[in-house]
Amino acid sequence: MRKFSVTVNGSTYEVVVEEVSPNEVVTPVVAPAAAPAVSAAPKTAPKAAPAVAGSVAVKSPFPGTVLKVNVTVGQTVKKDDTLMVVEAMKMENEIKAPQGGTVASINVQKGASVNTDDLLISLK
Fold first, then answer.
1. Which of 26, 86, 94, 98 is close enough to 64 for a disulfide, judged by CB 3.0 to 4.6 Å?
2. Where does 56-123 sit in CATH, by number?
3. What DSSP character marks residue 22?
4. What would the mean pLDDT of 82-92 be, rounded to a whole number?
5. DSSP 61
6. Which distant-in-sequence residues (6+ apart) come within 8 Å of 99 by Cβ?
7. Number of other residues whose CB lies within 10 A of the CB of residue 101
């Protein structure tokens, strides 16, 4: 028998291993299961408020992470102004205003993970 110390997900376990010859038949022994590790919940964006009635919804075209928000609520923007930058597959993508207007709401913050069709910004 040989004794080993094994670390799995930050928890250290002492393991005893029995050496067997190649011709020997080994009967499996079921050991008690270790308590499941407690993991932190994945960081996701908070649920966004619905778009303001009569506004234009700017949605995420792909999943990614918000790197930068370039506008504030109440700010006037022109068509094709960069509203925010979203990183997807290690590429920085500018999310542009589909039309001119005023920023009614910003539904995500820097560092938030977004999925396809998540509401990013509402314009009115």
1. 86
2. 2.40.50.100
3. T
4. 92
5. S
6. 56, 79, 123
7. 17
Question: Where in the chain are the domains?
Answer: 56-123
In b/e form, how buried is each residue of 62-92, taking b as 16+ CB within 10 angstroms?
Answer: eebbbeebebeeeeebeeeeebbbbeeeeee
Q: Please give the model's pTM, rounded to 2 decimal places.
A: 0.57
Q: Largest alpha-carbon pair distance within the chain?
A: 80
Two tokens, residue 88: 């997807």
Q: In the Cβ-directed half-sphere of 69, how many Cα atoms lie within 13 Å?
A: 16
Summarize pLDDT for 21-42 with one digit per residue, the tens: 777 666 666 666 665 655 555 5
Owner of token pair 């908070």: 46
| Two tokens, residue 76 | 């006037």
Distance CA(58)–CA(108), nearest Å, equals: 11
Q: What is the C-alpha to C-alpha distance for residues 68 and 94, in angstroms, rounded to an integer?
A: 9
Tens-place pLDDT, residues 103-116: 999 999 999 999 99
